[in-house]
Q: What sequence folds into this?
């Protein structure tokens, strides 16, 4: 079965981050940021990492520099892309300036990958044999479009992959209309009727289902218990607009 884990905070530099301990033994130092410890002002307070939400760019750059230090890399070695809710996954060895994608994969030991989210699922993948790893942004559009399939294709042996699904909107908090619901009707347990033509959708259950179908062993998939509902600890686009973005950050463990 998919393993549920509760992330615990750890201080790194000026930040409080949430290490993904289930992946460390496979060579990945991954952590989730929260919304604290940065310099952005309300409504982006305070560790907003996104440039596209209306925040002051200089504040975002400082926030990203703090996250880079927490990851143990120089700011220019923190790889962030412009995310577009698509399925493109880039194989990178450096920061992909200006690129659009919803997944990054690398074999570089001195590069940290970051995926920005605020209700969508941040996903980390690591190959237990090669230590090649990926970070993926998976909302309903990405899941429907095949972003996880594209990410898994970047690895030679899917059965050796270990996956982590980070904080995202909960099953109870995510109401969708019939168009979105119809795309996931084939996934057992992913939908619950919610009155009229509305449904509740379990995004992380969909992601785990897709990973298993792609060859990732169920016992190699871990999912954190924390959710973004309310936007108090982790940014939530559904709770507040405009708002910032937090990140799943991953790099090779030293």
A:
């Amino acid at each position: 079965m998919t393993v549920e884990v509760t992330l615990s905070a750890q201080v790194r530099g000026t930040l409080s981050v949430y290490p993904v301990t289930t992946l460390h033994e496979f060579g990945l130092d991954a952590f989730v940021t929260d919304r604290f410890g940065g310099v952005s002002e309300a409504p982006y307070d305070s560790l907003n990492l996104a440039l596209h939400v209306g925040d002051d760019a200089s504040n975002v750059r400082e926030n990203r520099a703090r996250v880079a230090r927490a990851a143990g890399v120089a700011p220019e070695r923190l790889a962030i892309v412009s995310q577009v809710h698509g399925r493109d996954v880039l194989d990178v060895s450096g920061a992909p300036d200006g690129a659009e994608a919803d997944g990054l994969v690398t074999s570089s030991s001195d590069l940290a990958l970051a995926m920005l989210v605020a209700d969508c699922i941040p996903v980390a993948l690591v190959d237990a044999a090669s230590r090649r790893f990926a970070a993926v942004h998976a909302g309903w559009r990405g899941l429907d479009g095949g972003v996880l399939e594209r990410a898994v294709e970047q690895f030679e042996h899917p059965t050796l992959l270990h996956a982590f699904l980070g904080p995202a909107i909960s099953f109870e908090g995510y109401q969708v209309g019939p168009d979105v619901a119809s795309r996931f009707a084939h996934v057992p347990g992913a939908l619950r009727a919610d009155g009229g033509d509305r449904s509740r959708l379990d995004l992380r259950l969909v992601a785990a289902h897709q990973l298993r179908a792609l060859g990732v062993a169920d016992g190699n998939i871990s999912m954190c218990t924390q959710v973004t509902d309310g936007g108090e600890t982790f940014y939530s686009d559904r709770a507040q607009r405009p708002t910032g973005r937090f990140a799943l950050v991953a790099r090779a463990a030293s």
